Amino acid sequence: MASELIQFGILAATIAFALGAAGLKNLLYAALSLGAMCLCLGALYWTLYAPYVGLFQMLIYGGAVVVLFVTVIMFVRIEGQ
Predict the structure, then answer these.
(1) pLDDT value at position 32?
(2) What are the residues whose beta carbons fall under 8 Å from the beta carbon of 35, sequence distance 6 or more?
(3) What is the pLDDT of residue 81?
(4) Quick one: angle between helices 2-23 and 27-47, nearest 10?
(5) pTM of the full structure
């Protein structure tokens, strides 16, 4: 029972971060929200007894891809818009 409540909590956080990634106007905050969503999704995989998938989700998507997005956003940032 407690495991299901934890899974529903992580799922709610994942949905909230996904909506933030799709709806935020500031690209930096949207990329950070995408990273948080990927970390929550990895935690959800972990609770569903798929630790390798969860670990790769957290490392590759939550780490490397989001760092790449943030780096590109910082380099291409246009002032005044």
Answers:
(1) 92
(2) 62, 63, 66
(3) 55
(4) 160
(5) 0.87
Angle, alpha carbons 11-13-15 (nearest 5°): 70
pLDDT, residue 80, reads 57
- pLDDT tens profile 30-78: 999 999 999 999 999 999 999 999 999 999 988 898 899 889 888 887 6
Determine the Cα–Cα distance for residues 56 and 27; give it in Å rounded to an integer: 24
10-to-4, 32, 41 alpha-carbon distances in Å: 10, 17, 8
Residue with tokens 């959800």: 44
From residue 55, how far is each of 1, 20, 41, 45, 49 by CA, in Å?
A: 24, 23, 10, 9, 11
Contacts of 44 (CB under 8 A, 6+ apart): 7, 10, 11, 14, 54
- Listed residue (36, 29, 30, 44) closest to 61, CA to CA: 36
